[in-house]
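Please review the protein record below. Let me know how this chain folds according to its tokens.
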Amino acid sequence: MATAPRPRTTTRDREDLTRRLTAWLGTRLPGAKAVRVTVPESNGLSSETLLFELDHPEPPVRACALRLAADPAAYTVFPVYDMARQYRTMRLVAEHSDLPVPRVLWLEEDPGPLGAPFFVMERVRGRVPPDVMPYTYEGNWLHAADDAERERLEAASVALLARLHDQVPPEEAEFLALPGEGDALRRHVTAQRTYYDWVVDGRARSPLIEAAFDRLEELWPRDPGKAVLNWGDARIGNVVYDGFEPVAVLDWEMAALAPREVDLGWTVYLHRFFQDLTVAFGQRGLPDFLRRDRVEARYARLTGHTPRDMDFYTLYAALRHAIVMLRIAYRQVHFGEASVPADPDTLILHHGSLRAMVQGSYWD
């Protein structure tokens, strides 16, 4: 991913979106116009983001960001984009915690105005650790920081999870409970199996992913503990920082009720994903940053909860990420940007580390 051309992130026309957005704004704030509309280079492969400013004498917020559900005709990464769910989650977190969540302004569930549902929120200025090229690569601001600065960012970022898990009452987040039978962890894993079946429908299945699901059953926690509100995509690439302090927590589309360790495993593994990639391309990366033992110890000090069964949860994170990577690869095939190899497992960028986790040798 770090050396290949970035997959396309949109099939929409920005000028057309600008015209339609201005027309819609007039229904919410008469006389308002969208100006200086841009699509960030870091635009994701799921929901799309537009950045714009409100031209109006009395705007509720001047600088705005719009999260637009993916174009359903564009081989979407996820089967469902519930913008109302994200909007409601951000309001809930803002109401019940001190996390820096951007102020949400408007929700539009009618796909008519822009072709898909969306919501508008305040735009918080700052800097985000990049995914491409990854922040573990030389030449970006986080890699160039000194050890003390990265220590500050790591401590503040782990604290986000601790505060989220401790401050938001799970009973207020029941709308995020996943369907199905069993406890919250069983429902979460079942939802991932359903997602995997959707990804491979009509295409080659992944023996590695299926082996990872089998290994999860062998490692299943005896006591997953009480479910809390999980951010879902809990990684520093979804945080805006002012200097080395978080000022905005973004991307709540994967939020759910689940054990604390689901978020922790994702945070640990998503950093390792970038670190492993960096080492594979001949750079040292950031081997002492967001290490598993450090994250677990920080979280325990902040919450009094010692993370448990982390071999299970880091494997689960790598498995979840593999399913997303497989879908993105098939999306590239759909757009003629790649072809399907004889071994579909090689479409998963981190197939080597996932296989090592299944075999129990990754953390040796």
